[in-house]
Automatic annotation (TrEMBL):
Catalyzed reactions per annotation: L-proline + NAD(+) = (S)-1-pyrroline-5-carboxylate + NADH + 2 H(+); L-proline + NADP(+) = (S)-1-pyrroline-5-carboxylate + NADPH + 2 H(+)
Gene3D superfamilies attached to this UniProt entry: NAD(P)-binding Rossmann-like Domain, ProC C-terminal domain-like
Keywords: Amino-acid biosynthesis, Cytoplasm, NADP, Oxidoreductase, Proline biosynthesis
UniProt-listed GO biological process terms: L-proline biosynthetic process
Record protein name field: Pyrroline-5-carboxylate reductase
Span of domain Pyrroline-5-carboxylate reductase catalytic N-terminal: 13-107
Originating species: Macleaya cordata (Five-seeded plume-poppy)
Amino acid sequence: MASTIPIQTDTFRLGFVGAGKMAESIAKGVVKSGVLPASRIRTAHRDFDRREAFSSFGIKVFEHNHEVVEDSDVVIISVKPQIVKEVVLQLKPLLTEDKLLVSIAAGVKLSDLQEWAGNNRFIRVMPNTPSAVGQAASVMSLGGTASEEDGVLIASLFGAIGRIWRADEKLFDAVTGLSGSGPAYIFLAIDALADGGVAAGLPRDLALGLASQTVLGAAAMAINTGKHPGQLKDDVASPGGTTIAGIHELEKGGFRGVLINAVVAAANRSREFAKR
Ligand SMILES: NC(=O)c1ccc[n+]([C@@H]2O[C@H](COP(=O)([O-])OP(=O)(O)OC[C@H]3O[C@@H](n4cnc5c(N)ncnc54)[C@H](OP(=O)(O)O)[C@@H]3O)[C@@H](O)[C@H]2O)c1
């Protein structure tokens, strides 16, 4: 079966169809981390500025999408979701099963991608906006004929811009509700923490710096210690102390319930979009 032709991990070329923000983040992360040299990455764009964003760090930039596909073994479709179908249909004759195809388009299902491409060697990846700073939380799901080796290769690419998990595609709406929309919930939390600092007498820039760094530090502790967040919370809440007084207020305000509802509401909205 053609799908079993392995991608040569030490020589494969990676192409982006759609030279936007996400493609730039992935390309930069992959080069910076040493996963691939820039000379093995290609893309195409009509605008000078977008071309420069890639060519300035050694990536080959073509005029047209078809040149990217022809010159790549792994092709990441990174255009906006609403034009994915049009772009994939245009490229269909070139999307042969010796190439591994990847889509990062939000809400576009593997079954549709595979049908439009006439190729089941597809992997769908859902990254999130912290990819821009190398801290994406990504989830991937493998299509019909994508092999285990294909999955490992894509995990190594997306591992260069953060962390990646594998999950059944039916969980992608829930993923959207948590990691897709989650950065916005945390921006709101940082803003509110900073407001609290200002209300308690801090200057704004100090309050904002402390709030952002506190969120970063708490997340790093949750990841690096491997302790359950409830345990970490208990560790810093001394009897009759300041932290338990703050926690009491959060619980009175339904903090946990509000966050749970936010994730569920966003996941439900994603499901509604998928039905349209
Ligand atoms: N940004 C994120 O954090 C994030 C997270 C999860 C998933 N995604 C997914 O990633 C994909 C890209 O998002 P993005 O934020 O990188 O968007 P973006 O910056 O708008 O990138 C899309 C790029 O595709 C170009 N383009 C438009 N029509 C094209 C065509 N026919 N052929 C080739 N390129 C074309 C656009 O050029 P023009 O601007 O000149 O039209 C633009 O440079 C989307 O499908 C999105 O759902 C993004």
